[in-house]
Every structure is written in structure tokens, then in C-alpha cells.
Design goal:
This protein is mainly beta. Strands 1, 2, 3, 4, 5 and 6 form a six-stranded antiparallel beta sheet that branches.
């Protein structure tokens, strides 16, 4: 799935250790730019992806993500894990000297 809009919140990074080793994840809130804006929570998994995307509040982005539902110990939870994020903001012009 894809959605685009503006990042309105960058939530604290989470980290932990699993059977596969250490991991990091960060969640973001995106607001669509429509007549009736919608807010969506999505997460980026992996320190490399968090650094690569370098998402900040007010950035306009297009997010490709997979919604998923998982079960653990009889409890269900959902997530929207981003697998690609593209900036929609124009790059800053190069400085001339």
C-alpha cells in the first residue's frame, strides 16, 4: 500500500534484543493533505533504514508499507511497516560561490 502526506510526529526510537540479535524501530505519524486529512501511524524497522530515511517533522513523503497483524501469547496487534519512503520535498538548491 502507499500513502503520502506530511510527517507530523516522530516518536521515540525503540530497541531490544531478539533471538536474531539487536533491533531498532521508530514510529512516525503522517497526515494526508486532503480536504479531510487522515492520520496514519507507520514504523520503520532497522537502524540502517532509520538513518537512510532520516525522517523529520514537516517532511512531505510517500510511504510504501505493508499492513500486518500478528499474534503472540493469545494477543493480537497490528502494524504498518514501511519498506520504502520517498521524500516529496524539493532538494535544497546548491550554494553558489
Amino acid at each position: 500500500m502507499e500513502i503520502q502526506g506530511k510527517i507530523i510526529a516522530v516518536l521515540p526510537e525503540k530497541s531490544g534484543t531478539s533471538a536474531r540479535g539487536g533491533w531498532k524501530s521508530q514510529q512516525y505519524v503522517l497526515e494526508t493533505e486532503e480536504q479531510y486529512p487522515k492520520r496514519r501511524l507507520f514504523d520503520v524497522f532497522g537502524e540502517d533504514k532509520i538513518k537512510q530515511y532520516a525522517l523529520q517533522e514537516q517532511m512531505r513523503v510517500k510511504v510504501s508499507y505493508d499492513p500486518r497483524a500478528d499474534e503472540k501469547d493469545g494477543h493480537w496487534y497490528g502494524s504498518n511497516r514501511a519498506w520504502n519512503v520517498e521524500s516529496l520535498d524539493a532538494p535544497a538548491p546548491a550554494a553558489t560561490t
